[in-house]
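Ticket #4471: structure export looks truncated?
Reporter: QA, pipeline team
Priority: medium

Steps to reproduce: submit the single chain below to the structure queue and open the exported record.
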Amino acid sequence: MQANGAEMMRLAACLATERGIEVCAPIHDAFLICAPLDRLDDDIAKMRAAMAEASRIVLGGFELGTDVSVTKWPDRYMDPRGVVMWDRVANLLPQGWRATA
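Actual output as written to the record:
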């Protein structure tokens, strides 16, 4: 199961990059992408299509569904499970570099 998940993520990242999507990072079983606002909806659709295609390839035609969470400036993505680590790292930075939560 883990190997199939990893392969779907690898394939989806390759497909997305080949389609011009700026993949910033994988996040467990998801991707963080970046796009200009005028292209955001289209890039989200392309990313979801890449993920669906990757699942069909790995799972012999079975297509996994995806959902979307959009974060736009001035907000930032934050997983509640990472708050403690974020705060620990932010406190190690010089005062001028610290971001507010």
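Status: closed, not a bug. The export was complete when the record was re-opened. Leaving a note from the reviewer for reference: The radius of gyration is 16 Å.
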